[in-house]
Amino acid sequence: MILSVASGKGGTGKTTVAVNLALALGRSSRGSGVPPSNDGSSPRNNGHPPRGSGLPLREHGQPPRGSGLPPGIVLVDADVEEPNCHLFLRPRWKGRETITLPVPEVDLERCDYCGRCADVCAYSAITVIRDVVLLFPELCHGCGGCSLLCPRGAVAERPRPLGSVRWGRAEGLSFYHGELDPGQALAPPVTRALKARALGARGADLVIVDAPPGTSCPAVEAVRGSDLCLLVTEPTPFGLSDLTLAVEMTAKLDVPTAVVINRADAGDDRVDRFCGERDLPVLARLPFDRRVAETYARGRPAVGAVPGWEERFRELGERALGLAAASRGRGEKRCRT
Amino acid sequence: MPDLREVAIISGKGGTGKTSICGALAVLAEELVIADCDVDAANLGLILRPSLRETHDFTASRTAIIDAQECSGCGRCAEVCRFGAVIQAADGTADVEPLACEGCGVCAHICPVGAIRLEESLSGRWFVSDTPHGTLVHARLGPGEENSGKLVTTVRNRAREIAQADGKGLVLIDGPPGIGCPVIASLSGVTCALVVTEPTVPAIHDMDRVLAVCRHFDVPTLVVVNRSDLDEGNRRAIAARCAREGLEVAAEIPYDPVFTRAMVEGRTVVEHSDGEVPRLLGSLWERLRGRLGLRARLECGGRPGLRGRPEEGRPGGF
Ligand code: SF4
Ligand code: SF4
Ligand code: SF4
Ligand code: SF4
């Protein structure tokens, strides 16, 4: 089961929701014996070999086998331009991997300056001027076209670092974190690598993805393939405008969508009306709470710090899982194959 | 060369009040062109009351399209596509998932029967609007589209042209959140950047990353602390950080629901009321103006004093 948490606009409380949701569900699955989801579904990656990390997901807080509890909650911080979840979770890091993009390197001994590579490159990352081959690695998308199509086999590829993926554990959760290096432009390759690692983790029963703000390629990369996307918004004109775009994005991706209204007591009722018109379920209305804002400012999650918020997020989580399970059933019926 | 100034307002983290502050500065600055480069979430228009003057299509991205009649099902395209955009059906025929396709064209080059072509797709639109405070160039990237950096560059270029044609000395850029390609496109070559942050652990973390980008591209930077009374310890941490790096904290603005009230009304905060927040924004603008004017005097030998009447036929003013 994959739940993504996104928002058209930054600063609506997306990270707060993702982190606290993971914590609240993690606590309830360990503590109370009430499973947050009873759909018994297996994760999407089920049956695939675990990829990459070898992270021991079940070492802590492992519920007894056969209890029906979802043991593995994985939180993925896919806001790779400005990742924040780790600030709240303070995980014990277990590993790190540099994420690279294959960029071309030309062997001038072999090159005859035919210019084919420059014709092929859709991003103007290679230019051939008479007997000079100019490379602009920062423009390269790593498509592999130049090396594949160079008639003289003169193009090799070298890895260019873009960022990193780290993983660790915190509060009984597995945690994956992606980070674009400052000065680098291309976030999606880091997001792709991050998701591949996290979804391939052993025992990833529930994956919660904190997506970047916006609706362009980095957000799409993070939300793609989720069973449910929670769009966090505020009841303000900016919030509504950005929610409208975010809903268009999830519709295009064919991802079932629900809304969380944060700071629900400020602004006006336009967001509520919009959700009513579009039949978008509003799963929670979170009031402004000065204590939550203060714990946030200090980099602490609300769950476990401010009374009442663990219950709020658990309830939100249970509703989201219920909805995801239901829409997943629908999705399988209309599945292409 | 006219001494045009470009100021980018960015934040790293979203939701710090960047757009509200940008709107207020636009009202205060008067002689300017405004470029809304947050092309994912262009919100400046919601508080500047624009009336649309021009609409343009933005077609920077391409998508591969496979002709099912021609396709022999050899599977080469799926092999070479590094973005997992080609899906092969059980009978072998290939299809492209448009949202995953990056338009690199490698599949089209490799297809042995020429069944694949690349089609330009409409990835967004950009607009020129009139507002009571100056011309606004803004854009809207289609959901899920790439090339936000190129769209930002398009918006900035047009804003610059209009400023030069109309003799305005300033382009004010409302930049996107994050540090990736649209942010880099918003920052490249600006006179200075204004980084809006707030005294929270996440916002400071994000400010650090966006400051690293500014350093990387050698952009002079000022810092504005919004909601400065949220946490005193963090506020001091920001001040200390800026002092260490030689960055000016150009304003500290306390939390005030007047920002939200103004937004609900569809106005900037300086038009909405005249309390403490507008006063602080006024002095922020004076400092920014001074900073830009000082640079102009040093570099171009121009006159100080931003509101000086531009000379005949020559854009300027500072
Ligand atoms: S395609 Fe190969 S041989 Fe031709 S210019 Fe490029 S690198 Fe040189
Ligand atoms: S790998 Fe692709 S994007 Fe990079 S230089 Fe080669 S053709 Fe251009
Ligand atoms: S390479 Fe061409 S012929 Fe082969 S599967 Fe792809 S589209 Fe069909
Ligand atoms: S154009 Fe590039 S990304 Fe798109 S399907 Fe072809 S190979 Fe894949």
| Strand residue content of chain A | 15-25%
Largest sheet of chain A: 9 strands, mixed
- List unreliable stretches of 5+ residues of chain A: 32-70, 331-337
Task: Please tell me the CATH architecture of the largest domain in chain B by its name.
Answer: 3-Layer(aba) Sandwich
- Secondary-structure element series of chain B: EHEHEEHEEHEEEHEHEHEHEHHH
Strand order of the largest sheet of chain A: 3-6-7-2-8-1-9-10-11
Number of helices of chain B: 11
Distance between the termini of chain A: 20 Å
The tally of strands of chain A reads 11
- What is the terminal separation of chain B in angstroms? 13 Å
Order of helices and strands of chain A: EHEHEHEEHEEHEHEHEHEHH
CATH superfamily of the largest domain in chain B: P-loop containing nucleotide triphosphate hydrolases
Shape category of chain A? elongated
The largest sheet of chain B has its strands arranged as 3-8-9-2-10-1-11-12-13
Q: Based on Cα principal axes, name the global outline of chain B.
A: elongated
The small molecules bound here are: iron/sulfur cluster
Oligomerization state: heterodimer
Give the structural class of chain B: alpha/beta
Helices and strands of chain A: which structural class? alpha/beta
Give the CATH level 1 class of the largest domain in chain B. Answer: Alpha Beta
Brief account:
The complex is a heterodimer of chains A (337) and B (318). By secondary structure, chain A is an alpha/beta fold.
